[in-house]
């Protein structure tokens, strides 16, 4: 069976981002790479959005970018400008196409459906398939979104809505998220931060229909695309193995308080590429311990007091937009962290240390 220098398990966001980074930096001229990916065809299946706090390779896959957004709670709306860090939405269809076209050019890169088709004994492995044990105590960010089209102009495409908490909370944390791509099209998502031990929050279609028709007051529209997902708000289990690194969600690249993962994946890919010649001895890349600690407290509060979360998120955005965005994107300094921490209900957060 064929052997390869490197193996990437999972040709999704993290696997393909890494392969692309290695390819464009000419790290695969004299090395071979096998990508293990079971899917039979690549098509748009996700929309990755984030504030652009660092450069990445996929500006040409950005479907839309905004410099203004809102956050809503019942009877109150905050308008926020993000000119320094625009919010970008990457179309996964364009992303897959761009990367796969590039990788095809290199004969040293091969795709397989299953790792059993190759000899992996002497390869260095990058694994993006998470090992997630069923545990009813785990928190998830789970959501469903539809892209809709209207006949007449309806949306203001200059401003997106990050969180609209003015909806049914069901003793959990629930908000709607609206990305207007144009005056006649938008992605509208219902998002829950909750455990997933029953199906009680998963009537997504009814939630979205009710929001569009009775909250946005839009009656004439057509659904042209749908996406559904669940992001673990905990780190997948991780076994330290020589010659193996986990990447993507499996590699702890999700910011647990927000679910944002895409840009962390890009930074991880750049880090691996820079250290590829000495990868087995390179220090593990991770989201800074500071955010791991703060997110842990945040999620404890969220679990114990879901009813407080709309206000907590709303208050967080009372800090300067730059500060909040940097904090949510793991780029804040000590003083910016303090500015966010002081906006939080202190006694609740201190008590959470002892739950
Ligand atoms: C619908 C959705 C929307 C999201 N939106 C955002 C967002 O807006 N912003 C953000 O920052 N993050 C977002 N995320 C979170 C995160 O960025 C994505 O989940 C991202 O795709 C994670 O990349 P990954 O490579 O870890 O996983 P994936 O992209 O899921 O890739 C894993 C790959 O492994 C393959 N695979 C599965 N089983 C095997 C196996 N046994 N062997 C080999 N391969 C296998 C899969 O087919 C898949 O291609 C979203 C997640 C989802 C699900």
Description:
By secondary structure, this protein is of the alpha/beta class. The chain folds into three domains: 6-65 and 91-131 and 236-281, FAD/NAD(P)-binding domain (3-Layer(bba) Sandwich), CATH 3.50.50; 139-232, 2-Layer Sandwich (D-Amino Acid Oxidase, Chain A, domain 2); 289-352, no CATH class. It contains nine helices and 15 strands. It has helices at residues 13-24, 92-104, 204-215, 262-274, 289-304, 309-316, 321-328, 334-341, 346-352; strands spanning 6-9, 33-36, 47-51, 62-66, 68-73, 76-81, 87-91, 109-112, 124-127, 139-150, 160-164, 173-182, 185-195, 221-232, 244-246. The chain has a seven-stranded mixed beta sheet, sandwiched between helices. Helix 1 (13-24) packs across helix 2, helix 1 runs parallel beside helix 4 (262-274) and helix 7 (321-328) crosses helix 8 (334-341). The model has no long low-confidence stretch (mean pLDDT 95).
Principal-axes shape call: globular
Summing up helix and strand content along with how strands pair, one would put the structural category as alpha/beta
Uncertain runs with pLDDT below 50, 5 residues or more? none
Helical content (DSSP H or I, runs of 4+): 25-40%
The CATH C-level class name of the largest domain: Alpha Beta
Oligomer: single chain
Tally of separate domains: 3
Q: Which strand order do you get reading across the main beta sheet?
A: 6-5-11-12-13-10-14
**Overall mean confidence score, pLDDT:** 95
Query: Number of helix segments?
Result: 9
Q: Which molecules other than protein and nucleic acid are bound?
A: flavin-adenine dinucleotide
Which CATH-level-2 architecture of the largest domain?
A: 3-Layer(bba) Sandwich
CATH superfamily of the largest domain: FAD/NAD(P)-binding domain
The CATH topology of the largest domain comes to FAD/NAD(P)-binding domain
Q: In this structure, how is the largest beta sheet organized?
A: 7 strands, mixed
Task: List SSEs in N-to-C order.
Answer: EHEEEEEEHEEEEEEHEEHHHHHH
> Beta fraction of the residues?
25-35%
